[in-house]
Amino acid sequence: MDFEAFINQVSQKIKVDFTSYKQKRVKRRTKNFIKKHNLSDYKSCFDKIKTDPQFKREFLEHMTINTTEFFRNPDNYKYLQEEVLPKLLKKHNKIKIWSAASSIGCEAYTIAIILNQLGVGPKRYEIKATDIDSTALATARKGKYKPTNLKKVDQSIIDQYFTKENNNYLLDAKIKQQVKFKRLNLLKDDYETNINLILCRNVFIYFTKEIKNRLTQKLSQALTDDGILFLGNTEYLLQPKKYNLEKLYTSFYKKA
Ligand SMILES: C[S@@+](CC[C@H](N)C(=O)[O-])C[C@H]1O[C@@H](n2cnc3c(N)ncnc32)[C@H](O)[C@@H]1O
């Protein structure tokens, strides 16, 4: 079995189309995974994926990089807090926010913390967070974090919203209940519409150019007429107009 046959069959078995991801990286990660599990080749890896549900879950986790942190790129969150959210809240009684590849939840909870800092009541917003990786979502629902996830967070925010337990930080129940998590595959599931703010950060880097274009179009369609798309810092759009978007600030695009 060669790599192409392996990835096609794994995609069908796991129901995640790995051919939509940059193939060089998928191949490298697969090879690492095979080595880590002392397997001999693609076929033995595929046989184990077919028969061992735990192994199958581990494969998916290995392929989807879950690295994330609270207030990742603080400058962008400052802009969000000072410009984007106040403007949206001024125009709308209630805003819909979607963290579209939320991993273990740091990004969605950062938004909830910012809204609490702004003194906005939870009746005025809805925060949904989705990811393809169910293990990451389970961690998100627990709200238990490692110090590395909080490197960019001001001590005053840590004191206000987290409790230290051994070497972990537990997020306040008040913030936890403000985010609803759900599994969603950006490649094949339908997106909700009329969303005021979408955060889709640090996931497009893994997709092929064609897929990135198609998903950007879908995200733009999911936004309200004045909706905002917040991308990762290395995921800028060269021609935002192509997607009915215009650049607002580094990583921020507004529906045009
Ligand atoms: C590097 S993390 C980014 C987390 C967060 N957005 C941030 O910027 O800190 C990438 C996330 O994308 C998720 N992901 C990968 N492919 C996906 C897909 N097809 N649909 C939904 N989520 C996906 C992974 O499971 C992972 O949690």
From TrEMBL:
Molecular functions per Gene Ontology: S-adenosylmethionine-dependent methyltransferase activity
Biological process according to GO: methylation
Gene3D superfamilies the record matches: Vaccinia Virus protein VP39
Domain CheR-type methyltransferase residues, every copy: 1-256
InterPro entries: Bact_Chemotaxis_MeTrfase (IPR050903), CheR_C (IPR022642), CheR_MeTrfase (IPR000780), CheR_N (IPR022641), SAM-dependent_MTases_sf (IPR029063)
Keyword check for Transferase: yes
Pfam families cross-referenced by the UniProt entry: CheR, CheR_N
Keywords annotated in UniProt: Methyltransferase, S-adenosyl-L-methionine, Transferase
Alphabetized SMART domains for the sequence: MeTrc
PANTHER family the UniProt entry points to: CHEMOTAXIS PROTEIN METHYLTRANSFERASE (PTHR24422:SF19)
Name the UniProt record assigns to this protein: Methylase of chemotaxis methyl-accepting protein
